Amino acid sequence: MAYDIQSPAQGDGLADVLERILNKGVVIAGDVSVSLVGIELLTIRLRLLIATVDKAKEMGINWWENDPRLSAQADTLEAQNTALLDRIDRLEAALATQTKEGSVADDHAKTSIV
Known about the structure:
Blueprint (H helix, E strand, L loop, with lengths): L13 H11 L1 E11 L2 E12 L2 H6 L15 H40 L1
Antiparallel strand pairs: 1-2
């Protein structure tokens, strides 16, 4: 009596499955929000993409190219942004001061004419 050893049906190896996933691409997206009495306490945004870079670009996904947190220059960009925001605050304060001084001078001129 002969016993035939049966091998599993044409199964895909892990490498084949991984290659198929990378070629097709998989996107998982979701948001979790925790609120208490209508006040949002915590929001978690999950965006997961499993694909090759070429496939992601083909799908129009390239957020990693423009995200400053993923850039090698993230610290430099953050410092420049902070400096620019400080400069805007100083300019707005100076403009507000000049506007007030101009309005006070206009009031004095009107009073002296009357």
